[in-house]
Amino acid sequence: MIRAILFDLDGVLVDFADYHFEALNLALDEVCDRPVLFSERDNYEGLSTRQKLACMVEEGRVKAGTEENIYRLKQGYTMAMAARRVRLEPAKVLMCRRLRKEVGKIGCVSNCIRASVDALLKAAGLLEFMAVTVSNEDVTHPKPSPDPYLLAASLLGLSPSHCLAVEDHERGVQSATAAGCRVVQMQYEHVNLIGVKRALKAVQEVSR
Fold first, then answer.
1. What CATH code is carried by the domain that includes residue 176?
2. Shortest CA distance to 80 belongs to which of 162, 13, 9, 22?
3. Which of the listed residues 49, 145, 165, 195 has the most CB atoms within 10 Å of its CB?
4. Which pLDDT does position 207 carry in this prediction?
5. What is the rounded distance in angstroms from the CA atom of residue 142 to the CA atom of residue 95?
6. pLDDT over threshold 80, residue 38
7. Number of neighbours of residue 2 by Cβ within 10 angstroms
8. Are residues 109 and 26 in the same domain?
9. Same domain, 22 and 10
10. β-pairing verdict for 105-109 and 4-7
11. 21 and 62 inside one domain
12. pLDDT in tens, 61-88
């Protein structure tokens, strides 16, 4: 039986993935004049900023030793964009309110830093509904490691098998699956009360 629904953040609860990409490119351009082309974006999607930068160092795109400066600049741009561009979306608020009543608990498991998780959820009007939130700073190994979902389930006092994870990207799906959660992959525009309840029903029917 599913007793909690755990949502990814970017691309699921908030439509902010493009802004993360924009913020990183602004920081890369400022430090090393090597922004990421849009066509290359999929190589880094679903990774935390530190994971992205580690990949870029290996690829020779970013000079070793400059990662912290890029990271700091990127987070500054991200917070500024969150304050200006994220707005409450009634459909997401309705979804979270109803699911909390009908399922029991909902939470957010993200590869963002803590400050971004809190700021984005608050700006979207969703923070109050979350029984638990997990950021990439709360675990040693972020997604696609199972650690974030294992921590979320533990904080809720539940087995991962009693949690349904809603993810938009394959790396998040890998994380939740490895943790033992039930998983549904959905894009932002489909993450609403009807879509999630339909997915929940399908998962529960399969587990009978």
1. 3.40.50.1000
2. 22
3. 165
4. 66
5. 26
6. no
7. 18
8. no
9. no
10. parallel
11. yes
12. 899 999 999 999 999 999 898 888 888 8
What string of H, E and C letters represents the secondary structure of 40-73?
A: HHHHCCCCCHHHHHHHHHHHCCCCCCCHHHHHHH
Pairwise CA distance, residues 43 & 15, whole Å? 19
Q: Biggest alpha carbon distance in the chain?
A: 55
76 with 175, same domain? Answer: no
Q: What is the pLDDT of residue 204?
A: 83
Q: How far apart are the C-alpha atoms of 70 and 161, rounded to whole Å?
A: 38
- The three-point CA angle 146-93-137 to 5° equals 30
Find out whether 25 and 205 touch, Cβ atoms under 8 Å: no
Of 126, 123, 122, nearest to 94 by C-alpha is: 126
Which of the four pLDDT bands, split at 50, 70 and 90, describes residue 47? confident
Helices (H), the chain: 17-31, 49-59, 67-85, 90-103, 114-123, 147-156, 170-179, 193-206
122 — pLDDT class (breaks 50, 70, 90): very high
Higher-scoring residue by pLDDT: 20, 170? 170
DSSP 133: E
Total structural domains in the chain? 2
Angle at 93 between CA 88 and CA 99, to 5 degrees: 160
Q: Which residue segment(s) compose the domain that 140 sits in?
A: 4-15+87-206
